[in-house]
Amino acid sequence: MKLISANIVAFGKLKNMTVNFASGVNLFQQDNGFGKSTLCAFIRAMLYGLGYTYKTVDGVRVNDVVRYKPWDCTGTFGGSLQIEHNQKQYRIERFFGNTARSESLKVVDLSTGKQLDIPSPGEHFLGLTVDSYDRCTYLPQEQVELASNENFDSKLANLVQDSAEDYDKLQEKLRAYKKTFKFERGVGGQIYTLENDILKLQRQLQQAETDRQNRANMTEQLAQTETQLQQLSTEQTQLQKRIDQLKQNLFTSQPTQADVDLVKKIDDVELKLATVPPTVEGDYNAFQQLLEQKSLLIKKRSALAKTANAFAVSLVLLLTLAVTLAILQIYLWAGVAVAVGAVLAIVLAPKLNRSFNKQKVVQIDEQLTAIASKYVNPSSKSVEELKSDFWQYYNNYQTNLSVRKALGSRPELNANSRQIQVELDQATIELQRLAERQQTLVKAQHQLQFALSQPTASIVDIAEELLYKQQLLATAKRKFAVANITAEVLASAKESLSSAYIPELCAKTQSLLNSITNGNYNVVTDRNFAISLQQNGQTKPLSAFSRGIREITLLCFRVAISQLIFGKDIPLLIVDDAFVNFDEQNFGRATQLLKQLSKTTQVIYFTCHNRTGNL
């Protein structure tokens, strides 16, 4: 694969930029901040996409979108990459959003204009996963950890296998075959689908059994409801007959209006009479007697007054006589005595009589007031007013007695009419309650009938389909298990075969290293790419050597891996200021190696320094 051009719409700090690439060495010498590393990231993103998984760096959560989305971009960002592969040109168009779902990818065959279904252009055109790409094709300034991975192992293992069947293809077929049963990530495949189907069928079977039981319960409820409706209809008929009879009884028991009016009059008079105390007759008689006593006292006082007046006249005459005798000195002392006695009689006798009569009258008035106060209001009233009110009260009482007597006996009204009305009201309420109960039962009856009329799933059909799916699942699991065992056996065989490429990898690395450094090193590594150097009979880990030797050894090791994976013609090598820390001698050797590789390899070299070495 070879890069032809990159058209950047927006990516990081790069916008509306077109970069053309040529065969051999492509030297991009720009100042710091130009965006060289961003351009490298753009090429990688076109081939493999962006990483959307967040990582915490210095306490901040970041991913590739955060790193490369332009600050002033509110929509998608990306561009296109034109490449050449097997003498045909393709255009990879890729745009990114905030999530993987918003990413779009289009791969177009420029010779036909046809859009191809290639989900990972990097794996398709380079044959490398993104991790292998980072370890083999891309050499950044910060060295990527050089560790073994599955893609490396399979690629290198294929170099030493004698089998006609390519290991990678066989494993890919096995993976694809296993995916038909169960996805490696996420959910999907026959097993997942069958397990879901079985779970649904089990739920359906359980629901069908529940429905069957519910239908049995509803059938029983419907029978009970219909029985209750029949009983209710009988009760309604009997109750309606009773209501009709009560109405007839009530009609025949109704009194005449005259009887009702007479009873009302009698009730009114008797109510008035009931308010009169039973002592009224006795009090009235006592009241009358007191009045008679008072009247006699008043008469006596009047007679005494007349007698006193006559007596006074006589005494006056006697007094006159006594005075005359005294003046004439005839019976002088007798006349004086008669005169004095007469005067005293005239003065004292009326006073004593009046005092005695007035006290008795006051006592009688008090008694009269006490009696009248039981029946009339005595407030601020004289004895005469109380007498008048009491007489009026007693006359009303006597009038009511006369009226009651005149009304005669109370008509006999039917005492059962009220009871009949009460029973009729109760029966009517009960009939309404039965009607409401009937309405509720009819509604329930219709609901049950509708529910029972609905079609239901067949338990037998569901059980048969469930058994069929369970058999399919058992078969799928057996096939998946066989595929797993096969993959494990192949992996175990590959593990044994992979150790065979280690000597060739060490030999190639050693040849490149000694050629560049003019040294005499023996390179030793394991399948996890832990490198050691042997010099003068001593083997030491790479960390024991100078930085220059470490860096040039890693460069040779990467080139050796690429040569083993791709053969002699490495398609692409991107170097992002990877030699900035090399001394002049090693820098010259490294650039000389790139120069030699550029005869068959497209080398894209980014640097911000003026030294270009042998490039």
Strand content: 5-15%
Instruction: Give the CATH topology of the domain at 1-126.
Output: Rossmann fold
CATH top level of the domain at 1-126 is Alpha Beta
> Radius of gyration over alpha carbons?
68 Å
What is the global morphology?
Answer: elongated
The biggest sheet, with number of strands, parallel, antiparallel or mixed sense and barrel status, is: 6 strands, antiparallel
Q: Within the largest sheet, what's the order of strands?
A: 2-1-6-7-8-9
Uncertain runs are 157-165
**What do the pLDDT scores average to?**
83
- CATH homologous superfamily (4th level) name of the domain at 1-126: P-loop containing nucleotide triphosphate hydrolases
The CATH architecture classification of the domain at 1-126 is 3-Layer(aba) Sandwich
Q: How widely separated are the two ends?
A: 22 Å
Question: Can you characterise this structure?
Answer:
- This protein has 615 residues and is an alpha+beta fold.
- It is built from 16 helices and 15 strands.
- It has helices spanning 36-48, 64-68, 121-126, 130-136, 150-158, 167-181, 190-252, 257-274, 280-328, 332-372, 383-407, 416-453, 459-498, 501-517, 547-566, 584-597, and strands at residues 2-11, 14-20, 25-29, 55-57, 60-62, 77-85, 88-96, 104-109, 114-116, 138-139, 522-525, 531-535, 538-541, 572-576, 602-607.
- The strands form 4 sheets. The chain has a 6-stranded antiparallel β-sheet with strand order 2-1-6-7-8-9, with helices on one face. It has a 4-stranded parallel β-sheet with strand order 3-15-14-10, sandwiched between helices.
- A hairpin with a 2-residue loop joins strand 12 and strand 13 (538-541).
- The relative contact order is 0.11.
- Residues 157-165 have low confidence and may be disordered.
